[in-house]
Amino acid sequence: MATVLPKELDRFERNADGSIVKAYENLANAVVHMACEDYMRAWKRKGNTWDPIRESGFMISAKGLEKWFRSKAFTRFTAVDGAYIVEKMQDILEEEKYNRKEVKG
Hints:
2 strands, mainly alpha
């Protein structure tokens, strides 16, 4: 007997076998996006250390998130290159730091 899915699920893309693709891609992208925001926030408060900040009840460290971005688990989670993401976030942080110094004087 075939499983009947709610009509709301019809809007998602499906593989040839009928499984939902877009929902999982969206979830993965949202998790990566949130991890990027957390990394930037942790870096700005504590620098690249294991010293965590408390964020929404969770303990977050820039070093811990960087380790996750470069981990095998991250590569299984998404096809996005985690090392590239870390490199780009560090570029943004450096640019922001330079811009703050320029404004101060």
